[in-house]
From TrEMBL:
PANTHER family in UniProt: COBALT-PRECORRIN-2 C(20)-METHYLTRANSFERASE (PTHR43467), PRECORRIN-6A SYNTHASE [DEACETYLATING] (PTHR43467:SF1)
Keywords annotated in UniProt: Cobalamin biosynthesis, Methyltransferase, S-adenosyl-L-methionine, Transferase
Organism of derivation: Rhodobium gokarnense
EC class of the enzyme, as a word: transferase
Protein name per Swiss-Prot or TrEMBL: Precorrin-6A synthase [deacetylating]
Domain Tetrapyrrole methylase positions: 8-224
Database matches in Pfam families: TP_methylase
Length: 255
């Protein structure tokens, strides 16, 4: 594989609050020749607007250019992993096309990553598909896990106890893991906690963390779960999209 003509920086920008951007991230933005911003349709315009707001704050006086692209949609039919792989190929192709269309050609390109590029984000996997492959630099950001725990003022784990970070799909298919006291659940579009026996479980849930309209619920799963389901559906209907995450913790250790 030949070497790309540009370097790529993946910059974590937190979960919706422009103040989450680190000094390191801001410096990387100003150092870039080109920042490319995904558009996800009118119903998710907030996500592009936040990136534009961050750029407006950080890039004043800098020579960094901005280019936007329409994010391809994933085919939800058929095999899940095959669909994700095809989707990543399509995104890599759009990245390549967007950079190639810039004039003059950029030497340093940056993407602003919601949350952190290393945690349940596919940007690194997509970047690995670029051909030729660029030199990749990762600037970490605040994760949704950090934002959730901070919003609820709780520790991520109990003393000496393990935590499992998983997806809604796996929680629904496999249940609460026997070897973890706390489960952090991401990418759950169907409230998989409803599949669990709620006895002895606490939940801390958050949506739009760090953004205007942040939503928080916490308490015994049996009591709070139905409230989360209703509030989540209403919020998604009103805004057209939702990003949420939650922790579930045993109040009594499994025998």
């Amino acid at each position: 594989m030949s070497e790309a003509s540009f370097d790529l920086a993946l910059i974590g920008i937190g979960t919706g609050n422009p103040d989450h951007l680190t000094f390191q991230g801001a410096a990387a933005m100003r150092d870039a020749d080109l920042i490319i911003i995904p558009r996800k349709g009118e119903d998710k315009a907030d996500l592009a607007d936040l990136r534009r707001e961050i750029c407006a704050r950080v890039l004043e006086g800098a020579e960094t250019r901005i280019a936007e692209f329409d994010l391809p949609k994933r085919d939800a039919d058929g095999d899940y992993l095959a669909g994700v792989s095809d989707w990543h190929d399509a995104i890599a192709a759009v990245w390549t096309e967007t950079v190639a269309s810039a004039d003059p050609a950029p030497k340093k390109v940056a993407l602003l990553i919601w949350g952190d590029p290393s945690l349940y984000d596919s940007s690194l996997r997509i970047a690995a598909r670029l051909d030729p492959r660029p030199s990749i630099r990762v600037i970490p950001g605040i994760t949704a896990l950090q934002a959730l725990c901070a919003a609820h003022a709780i520790p991520f784990n109990d003393v000496g106890a393990p935590v499992l970070v998983t997806t809604g799909r796996r929680l629904r298919e496999r249940g609460f893991p026997a070897d973890a006291d706390t489960v952090a659940v991401m990418l759950d579009g169907a409230c998989a906690f409803q599949s669990l026996d709620p006895e002895g479980l606490m939940i801390w849930w958050g949506a739009y963390l760090g953004m205007d309209g942040e939503m928080l619920f916490s308490g015994p799963l049996a009591e709070v779960g139905p409230k989360i389901v209703a509030a989540r559906a209403e919020a998604r209907e009103q805004r057209g999209w939702i990003m949420d995450i939650y922790l579930i913790r045993r109040t009594v250790r499994a025998a």
